[in-house]
Design brief:
alpha/beta, two-stranded antiparallel sheet, 15 helices, 10 strands, disordered N terminus, binds iron/sulfur cluster
Amino acid sequence: MAAMAAGGVVLGPAARRAEAIAEAVTRGNPAETRTLGKTGLRVMTVGVGAMTTREADVIRYAVDHGATYVDTADCYMGGENERIVGRALRGVRHKVVLASKVHIMDVPGMIRSVENSLRSLQVDSIDIMQLHGISSEGEVTDGRAREALQKLIDQGKIRVPGVTTHSGQETVLRAVQKHGFYKTVLVAYNFRSDTGITTSIKTALGLGKGLSAAIADVAASGIGVIAMKTQAGGYPVGDGGPSPHQAALAWVLANPGVAAAIPSMVSYAQVDENLKASGMRLSWRGIKTLARYEEVIGDRHCGLCGECSGRCPNGVDVAGVLRSLTYLEGYGRKALARDSYRGLGDAGAAACVSCTGCVVPCRLGLAVGRLTGRAHTLLA
Ligand code: SF4
Ligand code: SF4
């Protein structure tokens, strides 16, 4: 496996933090690597989020060009995505850290689900098996999930237990730090998830706040943090200078707590663009690029900060609805957007269509009711 054990030297939190800061502020080479917490897995800082990738050859191309982390899930594309990843990794499985996901259910059900993933991926073991989309401390301490994952570890079918989250993220990060067992957290993190466009740089200097600071702190205690949704939607961009997508990745990776970012990649051009961001320092030019990008997407893109959670009197999961809208209008993925929206069930935005005065405040100033209503119209 290309992701190798980290030299056998165990660093204390302060030394790990200093090492990570040095990595974050130094212009690196095109294949910068970082270690995923205490897992001993070392990966290139830009990996493959395969969720929307339909062509196995695109994933294979990324691996052939240095990517060492590939993330999928049993439910992406109704199961087809794991089969695509499996085809992509034939003969090169040993080169990557392979991550997939499982939903919390009864123990036999979770074990069956992971065994299905093994078959779809055509592998004997999966390196990181993550609880899918959790948002609470209760899910972090769920006994069924721990029992199932421990059995799978004992059987050699998975190596490292992790979680993924895109709501209640700070709560989940802190719960993983507090309760142990899970070794990695996949978080939704981009330049719009936090308290200002320079936050990740401030975090590298120990001055971060909010989600950025939580990521750095939790990572310093030995949890491997991986970032998804890093491009703030992937909306079309102009040309010249560092692309907003590269600058967005550099922003995420300026936080020393982030071991790797896993943007979606659907084309060879996107692979080339994204992988070049590994080792790229976030410059002031990059920050200006992001500020311009933010002007373009500022009225429609939800940063998934979760601050509006529970604020709709009609029970609408605003962040979940707007995540689905981003899948449609940013990623251009209608089926994914529809699946994501329908997965919200009663927490969807049906009530928004007839609601005349939205009372949900948004940290980014989004017109929530207008956007959620549009999401329902387009995706219900
Ligand atoms: S418009 Fe706002 S307050 Fe009304 S149902 Fe939708 S999210 Fe809730
Ligand atoms: S709608 Fe606004 S407050 Fe709610 S999660 Fe998105 S960015 Fe945060």
